[in-house]
Amino acid sequence: MPYLLLAQVGVGAAVGGANVLASLPLTLLSYAASLPLIAVTGLFGLVRPLSVTAVRVLTGVRGDLLADGPARSWGARWRASAWWTLHLGVGAVVSGVSLAVPPLGVVLVAMPFSGALRASVWGAGLAGETDPYVAPLIGVALLTALAAVCAGAGALLARLAPVLLGPTAADRLAAAEERAADLAVRNRLARELHDAVGHALSAVTLQAGAARRVLDSDPEFVREALAAIEETTRRTVGELDAVLGLLRDGDPARADAMPAPTLAGDLDGLLARTRAGGTALTAEQDPGPAGDWSQLPAITSREAYRIVQEGLSNALRHGDGPVSLLIRVHAPDGHRELEITMTNPPAQDPPAPEAGPRRTTGGRGLRGAAERAALLGGRVEAGPHGGRWRLRAVLPLGAAAQVPGGGR
């Protein structure tokens, strides 16, 4: 109606101020002039989500056949404009006949039964056209035709809606990228849960078992083990709350803001808590020319910490003997790398009955470590090496020229 009224003003001015509403040809001309106005406004990006919402409510078209969000390309805008023009154009016709036909049809149906209607202006006009007793048939036919027109218009719009409002190739690509990004973040959250909780359970189990065995003979060790258990569980509960909070909020994109331990922030604490469980652990740290783990990129420091944590968890669950850890920054072939090497003797004998069965994760931890390294363009190797079990991870850091002092 707003488009039609605006067009009527323009047409009326163009024909010298004639009353457009009193002339059917001028009304039809105003209708035709309103269609280009509708098409132009249909190019606005927000027209598509408005139209999609109307289609879903009114026509029952499946949601997956329609695009979500504003139009991203001119092709999508033109298609949305075509739908907008078709929808309002057909709607104007249906509205017009819906206003005119029902009163006329009711009058025609009731005319044989009312002398007042036959004597009225409408009755007098129709009397010369047809027998008043045939009027009810014409009235029923008009009402039936109106229902058919409305149903046909709805079916036509429902059929064309997926064609004109369906997702374009750009929309499908954007949706696929969004799903991939969401899946990647959720996989990262799953790795965080696995590594944090799995390591904590392994460490706490060993610390509690070691404390129980020396409860009477070495109270000082028991106090250290209990303190390590308290610190491990407190940190893990904090990480667990952060991850579950992100999942509850339904916004995994905020995962980058989640605090996570790093080499600079907690490597020494991780090693101390591992030793508190009675594990013999020797560690050699060489941050390279920078001399400080805080000089590493944040994502590298975070993923490297998780790889070290998983390596320690793997050694605690499956190893039987002292663990040796080497973590260093070096520059082979002029390219800086962060190398993590961890070795320990594999378990040779089955666990004692009092110790219970060893835990296993079915390899998910090492697979997660490999995924973390691949995220940074690095690699992880794990397996027997020289009679011991070795885990070696190499994470590229860039050219050595970027390191203060350069070189190895």
Overall description:
There is one protein chain. By secondary structure, the protein is α+β, with helices and mostly antiparallel strands. It has 2 domains: 42-167; 173-402, Histidine kinase-like ATPase, C-terminal domain (Heat Shock Protein 90), CATH 3.30.565. 60% of the residues lie in helices and 11% in strands. It contains 12 helices and 5 strands. The protein has helices at residues 2-14, 24-41, 47-58, 74-110, 115-119, 121-127, 135-165, 169-213, 219-249, 263-276, 298-318, 364-375; strands at residues 281-286, 323-330, 335-344, 379-385, 388-399. Strands 1-2-3-5-4 form a 5-stranded mixed beta sheet. A hairpin with a 4-residue loop joins strand 2 (323-330) and strand 3 (335-344). Helix 1 (2-14) crosses helix 2 (24-41). The longest helix is centred in the middle third of the chain and has 45 residues, at 169-213. It comes from Streptomyces racemochromogenes. Its EC number is 2.7.13.3.
Largest sheet: 5 strands, mixed
Q: Care to count the β-strands?
A: 5
CATH fold descriptor of the largest domain: Heat Shock Protein 90
What share of the residues does DSSP label as strand, in percent? 5-15%
The mean pLDDT is 78
Per CATH, the class of the largest domain reads Alpha Beta
Helix content: 55-70%
* Overall number of structural domains: 2
Quick recap:
The protein is of the alpha+beta class and about 400 residues long.
